[in-house]
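sorry for the late reply, my laptop died twice this morning and i had to redo everyting from scratch. anyway the thing you sent over, i finally got around to it. pasting the sequence first so we're on the same page, its 391 residues, then the predicted structure underneath. double check i copied it right bc i was rushing
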Amino acid sequence: MNLTREIALRFLMSRKGPGRFTGIVSMAGMGVGCFALVISLAVLNGFEGQVREKLRGFDGDLRLTGTELDATIQLLENRPEIQSVMPFKTRQGLIQYRSNQRMVTFKAVDMQMMQSFYNVSIQGEIPQKNGILIGWDTAARLGVRVGDEMIISSPLDQTPSIGFPHRLKTIVNGIFHSQILDYDDRIIFLPAETGELLFRRLDRWDGIDLRIYPETNLEDAETSIAAVLPKGVILQTWEDIHSILVKAMRLERLGAISVLSLIILVAAFNLTATLSLITVQKIKEIGILRAMGTPIHTLKNVLVIQGFWRGGWGAFSGLLSGCCLVFIQNITGFIPLPTDIYFMRTLPMKLLPADILLITIIASGFILVSSWGASRKVASIEPRDALQWAK
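ok and here's the structure:
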C-alpha cells in the first residue's frame, strides 16, 4: 500500500480525541448539503419539464410572424421535420355575458386541427360556425356554461362611418383547460370563419405555429426552417416567446444552487477544524515522521486524503440517498400536491447526469479547499518543536 494512504488510514482508525465527533458532524453536513442539492435540483427540473411541456403543447415548438405568411405556409407543408402547421389570427377584444364584460385575446384558428395541435382538455365540443371555445378561468369568473350565448366584439375593427365595433352573437360550444400561465383567463378560440367576420381590418394571418416531430432536435429544425424562409418572416422558438419565464427559471435554479451550497461550505469549515484537531492530536507522530525524513508534501497529502475520505463519504451518502428518494418518488408518487393549486397530482422530480456531476464538483471543490487549508499547518511544524510540545 502507498505510504501516504497507509499513514492517512492509521490516523483515521484512531478513535480518541475530539476529532472523532467533529469528523462525524462534518460528514453529516456534507451529506445533508448534497442531499438538499439533489432534491432541490430534481424538483426544479421536474417543474421546468412540466412547464416546458405545457407551453410547447399550447404554443407549439416554433412560431412564424411578419409578412408573406400566406406564401410561407406552402413552403412549410412538405418539410420533413414539421408535424403540423397552425396559422392563426389574433386580436384584443371584448366578450359580454349578460351584464358582465371582460377584455380577452381572440385567437382564430382552424378548428379541424384544434385537438390534434393543442394539448388541452376540452369540456363540451369543438366550436362550429358560430361557436367559441373559452378558457376555464374565464368561464368561472363569468359563470358561463357550455351552451350559453355570448356577444363578442373587436373594438379595433369598428366601422368608421358608424363608430361602433362589430358585434357577433356566439354560443359557448366548449371550455378548455390548459393549466398554464394565464391562458385559461385570457384566450378565446374562434373558428377561422368567425375570425374573418369579426376582424374586418385584418386581411392576413398574424402568425403560424409549428409543431415538429418529437424525435427532431429543435435547434436543428430551427436552422433548417430559417434557411428557406423569405425575407420579412421572423422565426421564434417557444423559449424566445417566453424568454422572461425561461430566464426566471434559470435564475431560480442558480439561486437554489448558490444558497444550498452554503450548507456544504459550512460542512467544509467543520472539516477544516476536524483536520486541524487531528494535526494537533497527532503532532507527536508528525514530528517523528518529519525526523525520519518524510517530505512535507507527503504529510500534506495525508491530510488531503483524510479530508476526501471523511467528506467524500458524507457527500456520497447524501448523493445516494437523494437519488434513491427521486427514484422512489418517480415510481410511487408518494409526495402529493394539491390539485387546486398545481396542475399536477404528485411532486415532479427529474434528475439529470449533469446535475450529479455539478454536485460532485461542488462538494469535491469545497473538500479540496478545506483539506488543503488544513494541510498548510503541517508545513509549519518542526520535528524538534513537535516532540517537545508532545511531552
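The chain is about 55% helix and 20% strand.
thats about all i looked at so far, will dig more tmrw
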